[in-house]
Write a structure and sequence with these properties.
heterotrimer; A alpha/beta; B alpha+beta; C alpha/beta; A: alpha/beta; Ubiquitin-like (UB roll); Alpha-Beta Plaits; Rossmann fold; 5 domains; 7-stranded mixed sheet; 6-stranded mixed barrel; 25 helices; C: alpha/beta; de novo design (two linked rop proteins); 2 domains; 4-stranded parallel sheet; 19 helices
């Protein structure tokens, strides 16, 4: 199902001839011809128009009554007037009506100065109101959620926030209550509005009715400067706009980029900026002294110590990049290790990716664009929960399903937020993805071929995918932990015919924000910049073992926190304790607290560099505020280290670095900063993209369908899986506004298992696995869970699920001990 | 034009663009010097001295500043004042920043904050947590006063603001709210 | 099926829908069948094709009795042909002040409606039918429930209607009491379980209605006409009424008349005949002053203007008003026009759904101004503002509710301006209203608000 192409037609608006696609709404068509028609309720991002505000009335020749331009599709030859007396009168009337119940205390209101109602009142209003009676009153402000304040008096009932909640986020929490002029926005029973995207309603609100506590009354539009960047808190890489006052970020807004984020932001990206100014932030190089405490040292000192440490360990050095590490930084890290130290232990991400398979998957014909999801025939979500791993992708899938009839199939180990919208859902046991995927591929290839306990689910999934025109597969990085799952995935792609069509493909959701970029600049064992052939080396999962046994001595962590985010946290703890650790980090993270040297990192409001979106789009992160006193840009520090180690850098500034990085990279070659502009550029969309990926490496082996996953392990054993939680992240803990969202560890378990083990909802238990490490958690019994598996949040602050996983996720079974008697839990 | 005119003239003229008919000769005073000249000088001097002596009896008009101050007109724009409501004592300023927006010298800085309903600072939802005017930059145009929707800021009559330190010329909210020492006398009607 | 005629003094009732209305036990299927009921249904299903039915309906030129007066046959023909889920909704959310005809039709003769619906379902190709009845009509809904059960049992509804293999399901759905749910798209939203707000048109319900499927929505009275048209033919139906308004109409007469109630008349009889001959003229000593010809949303007509007009869709439209739902509210000289305007405005303010701005804020503002006017706190400027606000509402709203207030209020101000001026200069209407008012301080006529007053058959 390809996005329908519409014929161009010509209409006349106020005497101007405008050419626009047929069926486009008149308001949008007029806008494209530079005729502004005022609107309040209309917002194409929210779906179908509602025509509630009546602000956009225009005169269309041949129709006696005025029509709402937001809901009138254009036809060829339409003649429209927006400035006649009749229209003016209607516009004046609507503005006057809107102001009947709207308080006129703009100086107090937080929206003053950037308020569409102010602007439209000035531009299209009568100039004065004849209303002399009492306006309606409400208690205000109301705490709609701990992040958003609601002022019902200011609300003009434009339906935008309600539509967002109903039709975009689909949480259906915001409602209009009461009727007539007594209508107000609220939630059922005044419960807090709880949704990871709910910050968007602030931006949608055309008046000062919805404001955030983090920005409320902090600044006026003329006090602030807008500055664009890209959010590096997750792989969604949403385009953002900072509001900066006195060199401090006060607010983060969405910077509409239809190819990337559709103009939405999640709350982590919107409110996470609070961590930038956190008191805990490391702003100077730190050295761990003999007493185990970190103390500041000078940058020169830090440089010489880092160089010394790296020189002394030489090729026994490992580099692990992650988080928001830019392509430039990743490329420098690669050069430092490969050229400066002759080492080859470099990796990024949490799961070991194989260079050959990465090359295979990087085939431009196999990669989907984000916008392909909009009009895909079917979307398969495989081994990932987009809401928690790439939140904006979740919204995009929902949009496709809701508006364009995309069929959605979900195959994961743990329940996802998309299950409710899915047309078919399949579940497999943790660590059994490979078998499930190959079974699915087999079922698609020949109907009725699958057997075993999953047969029914596999058949349902296959039905959705088999005949679908364009299939987009959104898959999670976790699949790399099962080598055979990747070859099964390749097989699935072949079965689905993905390579043959333009608008289908695969998108990997990496665990690290710049996961794709880091691999492509050489932070991958066996592949240097541009995925070119390089000497093979150990992958991330082997680092742990090699650091412990001493075959690797030093590790450089670039914005990576393996103790927290990587499987086998316990092993990483020991490994880092055993090695010399240099951590580039903003905070004393669990890994950085084991580091010997900590180099402060910049965040995405301070960094200059590029990152690569999972769809292959290079985007620019811009420096908008100066970093805290004296903080050296990370690329600068790494370049200095490289020079000390005798690597010829040949550039002296960031643009030079960018050019050097792209010119040495087969994939990015020829991309200039101008190409990136505001929206970024996909390297696959450039000429000759197909030939850019070096051939080679191991051809992925075809996985034969294995036995049913359920058969593994002892009959009554419960296998441990981990699931990701959006808020189990450093940034949420360091941002005061988000701290309340940081999750408590919970053990998700299926109803039959809970019944068998006698577990009750909310009960405190102690979960242990393997060699005796244990984690405290509350029981969360869920439907749609596969029996025989239980899931802990990975990366949780208290009781990290990763501590128990062992090196291969999904390989362990757990023991559950009740920590408190049942009766006690019930009472509380 | 000029070139053409110059061609017509045979001799050089400082005003080449003037036609001869436009030149009007003005008769100047008599030549200086000589007895008549001396007398004329003495006469004019005496005429001037007459004014001097006539004023002598009126006494000195010099103001003994700083002991004495110049009176100013009621609408004189001197140092700013911030106001409170007389009944409740709450600040009139709600921190809307309109004065800062209007200021052509960019010398006003306002950082607003939300009022705590239990401990109000201003009457509205917001108040100015920081309100600073850099008087070293202020040009006393009075736009802030005009922009203020709550009559919270007015220009006073005080013009004595010299200081030894530039930093001391940044007036804070407390300084602007404090009852200023009105040192400048006001002109009375008819003055 | 010849209509029975009851003789009054001059103008007579012409009873088609009300033919057997006084028959005891008519709501039972046995009585209904004894009096010739369900024969049309059998005829429609066994002797006629859907195309025949549709042609017959179009030929009859039956106009909608709910208010808009749109041709029913034409509306049914807008539904796309083809194999898809199509729906038929009966709009029984009779909430217009002064209108109580559907109540009587449903309470006393539910099978006539059900028969009409099953016929309409065949004509439109719909197999799922709903009767959306207002929540306050508890008795009527119960009666319908019983009647539907009887019809299912008798095989007129269900999977096999009259043994033809056609499936027609009928559900009686009770509303929650919102006037706006009588608006067809709001009715659909409410039926779907959403907040009852009007939808944006187009798409019209005939194309995309209930659950996104093509939907035919008709009033109770309209559908009740169908059995008679099928039984006696379009030609017969057109022999009643005028050229443009064929058929009969059940008129609800209320207000300051001696005998308020429902009267079925041939369209085109003079208004005077309905008010004086059928409803017995003025109830008190005072002379009649004005009347609403089609429910409270129709612009008021003065006695001089309207009494001698024929009561038909076109004549009322020509007079600047409308026939609407066919309910005449009569006011006598003792009625305060200011209070009347306020009462009308209050109703629409209360019932505005709040979706579009002009209606939401305009009704609210108008009520506030009229309240001040009636309390004597208004200025002449307020009267100007009232007039201008009505103008600003008219034509700018999403649905017709806003216009429904603006039309009568602006008509009242236009036609009785001196009374409004007097209210301003004399300090309100109370002095005026209490001076020799037979209603004892209540300046309103006894308008039969649908739930309040009883009706005479």
């Amino acid at each position: 199902m390809v996005e329908p192409i519409r014929e161009l037609v010509t209409i006349t608006v106020d005497g101007r001839e405008i050419t626009a696609p047929e069926g486009q709404m008149l308001h949008d068509a007029a806008k494209s011809g530079d005729v502004e028609i005022p609107v309040f309720c209309y917002e194409p991002k929210l779906g179908e128009p509602v025509g509630a505000c009546r602000m956009c009335l225009v005169e269309i020749e041949g129709i006696p009554k005025l029509q709402t331009s937001c809901s009138t599709p254009i036809r060829d030859g339409m003649v429209v007037h927006t400035k006649t007396d009749q229209v003016k009168e209607a516009q004046n009337a609507v503005v006057e009506f809107l102001l009947v119940n709207h308080p006129l205390d703009c100086p107090v209101c937080d929206k003053g100065g950037e308020c569409p109602l102010q602007d439209i009142s000035m531009g299209w209003g009568p100039g004065k109101s004849r209303f002399t009676d009492v306006k309606r009153h409400f208690q205000k402000p109301i705490e709609l959620s701990p992040l958003i304040a609601l002022d019902r008096e200011r609300c003009i009932l434009c339906y935008r926030c309600v539509r967002f909640s109903q039709e975009v986020a689909e949480d259906e929490q915001l409602q209009l209550l009461e009727r007539g002029d007594r209508t107000f926005v609220g939630t059922f029973d005044d419960r807090p509005y709880d949704d990871p995207y709910h910050g968007n309603v602030i931006e949608l609100c055309p008046v000062g009715a919805l404001t955030t506590y983090t920005y409320r009354f902090r600044a006026r539009p003329w006090d602030i400067e807008d500055a664009g960047s890209v959010c590096t808190l997750c792989s969604s890489q949403c385009n953002v706009k900072f509001s900066i006052r006195d060199e401090e970020v006060l607010r983060v807004l969405a910077r509409d980029n239809e190819d990337v984020d559709d103009g939405w932001l999640c709350d982590k990206g919107r409110f996470g900026f609070q961590s930038f100014g956190s008191e805990d932030r490391i702003t100077q190089p730190m050295l761990r002294g003999g007493d185990g405490e970190l103390s500041p040292i000078s940058w020169d000192d830090a440089l010489s110590r880092v160089t010394k440490a790296l020189k002394s360990s030489g090729e026994k050095t490992a580099v692990l990049a992650g988080g928001g590490t830019s392509n430039e930084e990743g490329w420098l890290l690669g050069r430092v290790l490969r050229e400066g130290l002759a080492g080859n232990a470099i990796d990024s991400g949490a799961h070991p990716a194989d260079a050959g398979a990465v090359r295979g998957l990087s085939n431009p014909a196999l990669t989907a664009r984000m916008r392909d999801i909009d009009h895909a025939g079917a979307v398969l979500v495989l081994g990932a929960d987009p809401r928690n791993e790439m939140p904006i992708c979740d919204l995009r899938i929902r949009k496709g399903v809701r508006r364009n009839g995309v069929r959605l199939a979900v195959a994961t180990d743990s329940p996802t937020a998309l299950d409710r919208r899915a047309h078919a859902v399949g579940r497999y046991l943790p660590g059994a993805a490979a078998g499930f995927i190959s079974q699915l591929a087999g079922e698609i290839r020949s109907e009725g071929s699958s057997s075993g306990p999953d047969a029914e689910a596999v058949a349902a999934l296959a039905t959705e995918l088999r005949g679908a025109e364009d299939v987009v597969v959104v898959w999670g990085e976790e699949l790399w932990s099962e080598p055979r799952a990747i070859s099964a995935l390749m097989d699935l792609a072949t079965v689905l015919g993905i390579e043959g069509t333009e608008t289908s493909g695969l998108i990997e959701i990496p665990t690290e924000a710049n996961g794709r970029g880091l691999r492509e600049v050489g932070c991958l064992p066996g592949a240097s910049a541009g995925l070119a052939e390089a000497p093979a080396g150990p992958g991330v999962s082997e680092f742990c073992e090699k650091l412990r046994d001493g075959s690797l001595e030093t590790i450089l962590l670039a914005d990576s926190d393996p103790v927290r985010t990587h499987p086998d946290g316990e092993g990483w703890k020991q490994a880092l304790g055993n090695a010399f650790v240099i951590a580039i980090s903003s905070f004393e993270t669990p890994s950085a607290s084991l580091a010997n040297l900590v180099i402060p990192a910049e965040n995405f409001s301070e960094k200059e560099g590029t990152i690569t979106h999972p769809e292959g789009r290079l985007q620019r992160v811009r420096r908008n505020v100066p970093p805290p006193d004296g903080l050296l840009p990370t690329w600068n520090f790494l370049a200095a280290v490289a020079t000390e180690l005798g690597v010829d850098c040949g550039f002296s500034d960031q643009p030079g670095l960018f050019t050097a990085m792209t010119s040495s990279n087969g994939l990015y070659q020829g991309i200039t900063e101008e190409d990136l502009a505001g929206q970024g550029v996909r390297w696959q969309d450039r000429e000759g993209a197909a030939g850019r990926v070096p051939a080679g490496g191991a051809t992925p082996q075809m996985a034969a369908p294995t036995s049913a996953p359920g058969s593994a392990g002892a009959p009554d054993s419960i296998r441990l899986g981990t699931r990701r939680d959006l808020w189990a992240a450093e940034v949420a803990e360091r941002s005061p506004a988000l701290e309340f969202l940081v999750p408590m560890q919970s053990l998700e378990i299926s109803i039959p298992d809970a019944e068998r083990l006698g577990l009750k909802q909310g009960q405190a238990v102690e979960v242990s696995a393997g060699d005796g490490a244990s984690v405290e958690a509350k029981v969360a019994i869920r439907e749609a869970m596969i029996p025989g598996a239980a899931f802990l949040i990975c990366g949780a602050r208290d009781g990290n699920g990763n501590l128990l996983t062992g090196a291969v996720p999904g390989s362990r079974t757990i023991r559950i001990e009740v920590a408190t008697p049942v009766g006690q839990t019930e009472n509380t | 034009m000029h070139a053409k005119l110059n061609q017509d003239k045979t001799d050089w003229s400082p005003f080449p663009y003037l036609q001869e008919a436009d030149v009007i000769s003005v008769q100047r005073g008599p030549e200086a010097g000589g007895a008549a000249g001396g007398w004329r000088a003495l006469r004019e001097t005496m005429r001037g001295m007459k004014t001097t002596f006539a004023r002598l009896v009126e006494g000195p008009v010099t103001l003994q500043y700083p002991e004495e101050k110049t009176a100013v007109y009621p609408r004189f724009r001197g140092r700013h004042k911030l106001h409170r409501f007389t009944d409740t004592g709450l600040e009139k300023c709600v921190g809307c920043s309109l004065c800062a927006a209007a200021c052509p010298a960019d010398c006003i800085r306002v950082v607003a904050r939300e009022n705590d309903p239990d401990d109000r600072v201003s009457a509205g939802e917001r108040y100015a947590e920081v309100y600073e005017i850099n008087l070293a930059r202020c040009i006393f145009c009075g736009y802030c006063e005009i922009a203020c929707p709550f009559d919270a800021i007015t220009m006073g009559h005080d013009y004595e603001m010299a200081d030894y330190n530039r930093a001391d010329l940044i007036f804070t909210k407390e300084m602007l709210l404090a009852e200023p020492i009105e040192r400048a006398p006001l002109k009375r009607e008819g003055e | 099926m010849p209509p029975t005629k009851t003789k009054t003094e001059k103008t007579t009732e012409t009873r088609i829908l009300f033919r057997n209305i006084d028959e005891p036990g008519l709501s039972k299927i046995s009585t209904y069948k004894r009096l010739g009921g369900y024969k049309s249904l059998v005829k429609a299903y066994t002797e006629m094709t859907p195309e025949d039915l549709l042609a017959e309906l179009e030929a009859s030129d039956l106009r909608g009795r709910g208010g808009a007066g749109f041709s029913m046959g034409k509306k049914a023909s807008f539904l796309p042909r083809g194999d898809m889920d199509k729906y038929l909704c009966c709009n029984a959310d009779e909430s217009e002040p002064g209108t109580f005809k559907d109540r009587e039709l449903m309470q006393k003769n539910p099978h006539q409606l059900i028969e009409g619906m099953v016929i309409a379902a065949r004509a439109a190709g719909a197999n799922r039918c709903f009767i959306y009845i207002r929540g306050e009509y508890v008795l009527q809904a119960d009666t319908l429930d019983r009647a539907v059960a009887e019809a299912y049992e008798a095989g007129y509804l269900g999977e096999d209607v009259c043994g033809t293999g056609e499936q027609v399901e009928l559900v009686v759905h009770r509303g929650a009491g919102a006037y706006i749910c009588g608006e067809e798209t709001a009715l659909l939203d409410s039926l779907e379980g959403k907040r009852g707000n009007p939808r944006l048109k187009p798409p019209f319900p005939a194309v995309e209605g209930l659950y996104g499927g093509p939907t035919l929505i008709n009033n109770v009275e309209t559908l009740s006409n169908l059995p008679h048209i099928v039984a006696s033919g379009a030609e017969w139906f057109r022999s009643f009424g005028t050229e443009q308004s064929p058929g009969t109409k059940v008129v609800s007469v209320s207000g300051d008349v001696a005998k308020p109630g429902n009267y079925e008349i041939e369209l085109g009889v003079p208004v005077r005949g309905i008010i004086d001959d059928l409803a017995g003229g003025a109830s008190g000593k005072a002379k009649l002053k004005c009347f609403f010809p089609g429910g409270s949303s129709s612009p008021v007509l003065t006695v001089e203007e309207g009494m001698d007009l024929p009561y038909s869709f076109e004549a009322m439209a020509d007079a600047g008003s409308m026939l609407g739902s066919g309910s005449i509210i009569v006011c006598d000289e003792e009625t305060s026009v200011v209070e009347l305007a306020l009462r009308v405005a209050r109703f629409y303010h209360h019932e505005s759904c709040g979706k579009c701005t002009p209606c939401r804020e305009g009704t609210n503002w108008t009520v506030k101004m009229l309240e001040r006017l009636s309390h004597g706190e208004a200025t002449p400027i307020d009267l100007e503002t009232i007039v201008s606000v009505q103008g600003n509402i008219t034509g700018n709203c999403l649905c017709v509710l806003g216009d429904s207030m603006a039309a009568p209020v602006s008509a009242l101000v236009a036609k009785y301006r001196p009374e409004f001026d007097q209210a301003i200069s004399m300090g309100g209407v109370n002095g005026h209203a209490t001076a020799g008012n037979g209603h004892g301080g209540d300046a309103l006529p006894d308008v039969a608000w649908p739930l309040g007053a009883g009706s005479a058959g």
